[in-house]
């Protein structure tokens, strides 16, 4: 049986460990932090991400820590509705789209790895330094917190060590340094009463000023009786370090949303009542030409870091494990298995890395702002006809591998919530 070492106990490394275990392997994960904690804010788990969790046998546990996404609604910088679509099973997909706290999802995967593979399957407090390989295997150099080093041998090394991957740096030393895009994200949460129907994701604003995405990630959060709401603001900014835990100030963004007037959500109050605010610069990592080096493979953000917009980064990271496990089980030679995995996944995922640099379907907010000079409109159909918006959404969903049900038949799937309310 192959001896597999995994670097990093983020969603990619943990999901891969569970997938390998399903195929009869018993991998070991090496993680640099001394103790995993539920860090981060929200992740929008797309239908194909939920499918992965179902296949890992974790659907019920996932439902317990997440919120079903029913409606995705777009507003201009005055809070006027532009467009809406249904999500997940409500749209007709086989699986749900769900919102979850990144740290709670990570801890669910971690607990499951320990339950299924044993307590020694995750070694914490050891930092991957470098690898060397020969015809028979990989030697992995690890550093402990006290500065001592250790070498472990494995048949395959799976590097899931995130956006600043040391394995990626070793594999691609010539890769250009990442570049700041000019856009900074403010990621935060607020504990509050649920807004709208408690199952909506809101996309608010004009990119020419600033935009915001808001969605609930946990009901009755930690027994508080309140909903934990995640919000992400994008605005032009100044370059900062690429660190998920960098603190930011809400004062920088409050004035950017003072024209937004929604009937069911006081955006200013939500921002002011935040529990935490993190800064995260949008950094361009150029797509890699290869993810493999003999017996070593990059997965998750180490392989394909993309702007953390739209949930595909985390979902694609989870997909990697299943795609890799099947190939390692099918081939005697792991080098062949890794190459086959790369050939199947790299072109498609690199396409997504590039697509995420653009605005995707969020572009409708820019189109409306351009066509109205960021002023309120009288009739949205005159500004952005439904058919035009629908075509943009259908194309994007197909590109990320989840074509809308009815897409082939050219059916209209978008709507405006007020028109539905009026028809009731
Ligand atoms: C603390 C934190 C908070 C985050 N918050 C959010 C968020 O709010 N929203 C969002 O969309 N995404 C967030 N992310 C990123 C998100 O988890 C990833 O984009 C996505 O899930 C892909 O996961 P990954 O496992 O590839 O990478 P990551 O989730 O980044 O996991 C990588 C893991 O590797 C470990 N590691 C790194 N270097 C080494 C090394 N040399 N040796 C050993 N271990 C190493 C890290 O400690 C980490 O546990 C966060 C990531 C982190 C680490």
Instruction: Compute the average pLDDT.
Output: 93
User: How far apart, in Å, are the first and last alpha carbons?
Assistant: 61 Å
Query: How does the major sheet shape up?
Result: 7 strands, mixed
Going by CATH, the homologous superfamily of the largest domain would be: FAD/NAD(P)-binding domain
The small-molecule ligands in this entry are: flavin-adenine dinucleotide
What gyration radius follows from the Cα positions, in whole Å? 22 Å
CATH topology of the largest domain: FAD/NAD(P)-binding domain
Strand elements, count = 19
Shape: globular
What's the assembly state of these chains? single chain
What is the name of the CATH class of the largest domain? Alpha Beta
Task: Classify the secondary structure makeup into a structural class.
Answer: alpha/beta
The low-confidence parts are none
Using the 3D structure, state the CATH architecture of the largest domain.
3-Layer(bba) Sandwich
């Amino acid at each position: 049986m192959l001896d597999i070492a995994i670097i990093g106990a983020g969603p990619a490394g943990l999901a891969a460990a569970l997938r390998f275990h399903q195929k009869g392997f018993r991998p070991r994960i090496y993680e640099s932090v001394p103790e995993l904690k539920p860090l981060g804010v929200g992740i929008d788990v797309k239908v194909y991400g939920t499918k992965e969790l179902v296949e890992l046998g974790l659907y019920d546990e996932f439902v317990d820590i997440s919120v079903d996404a029913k409606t995705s609604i777009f507003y201009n910088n005055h809070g006027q509705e532009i467009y809406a679509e249904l999500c997940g099973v409500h749209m007709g997909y086989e699986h749900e789209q769900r919102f979850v706290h990144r740290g709670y999802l990570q801890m669910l995967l971690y607990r499951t790895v320990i339950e299924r593979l044993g307590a020694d399957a995750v070694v914490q407090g050891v930092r991957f330094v470098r690898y060397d390989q020969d015809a028979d295997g990989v030697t992995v150099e690890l550093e402990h917190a006290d500065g001592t080093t250790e070498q472990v041998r494995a048949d395959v090394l799976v590097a899931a060590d995130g956006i600043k991957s040391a394995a990626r740096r070793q594999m691609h030393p010539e890769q250009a340094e990442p570049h700041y895009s000019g856009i900074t994200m403010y990621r935060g949460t607020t504990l509050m009463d649920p807004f709208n129907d408690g199952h909506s994701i809101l996309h608010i604003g004009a990119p020419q000023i600033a935009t915001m995405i808001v969605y609930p990630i946990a009901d009755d959060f930690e027994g508080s009786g309140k909903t934990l709401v995640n919000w992400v603001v994008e605005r032009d900014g100044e370059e900062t370090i690429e660190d998920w835990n960098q603190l930011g100030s809400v004062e920088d963004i409050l004035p950017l949303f003072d024209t937004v007037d929604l009937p069911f959500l006081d955006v200013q109050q939500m921002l002011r009542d935040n529990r935490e605010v993190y800064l995260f610069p949008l950094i361009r990592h150029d797509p890699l030409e290869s993810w493999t080096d003999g017996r070593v493979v990059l997965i998750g953000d180490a392989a394909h870091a993309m702007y953390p917009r739209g949930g595909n980064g985390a979902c694609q990271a989870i997909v990697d494990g299943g795609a890799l496990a099947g190939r390692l089980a099918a081939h005697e030679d792991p080098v062949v298995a890794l190459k086959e995995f790369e050939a199947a996944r790299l072109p498609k995922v690199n396409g997504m890395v590039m697509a995420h640099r653009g605005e995707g379907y969020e572009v409708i907010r820019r189109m409306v702002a351009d066509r109205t000079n960021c002023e309120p409109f009288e009739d949205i159909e005159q500004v952005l006809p439904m058919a035009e918006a629908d075509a943009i959404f259908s194309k994007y969903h197909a590109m990320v591998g989840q074509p809308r049900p009815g897409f082939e038949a050219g059916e209209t799937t978008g709507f405006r919530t007020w028109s539905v309310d009026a028809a009731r």
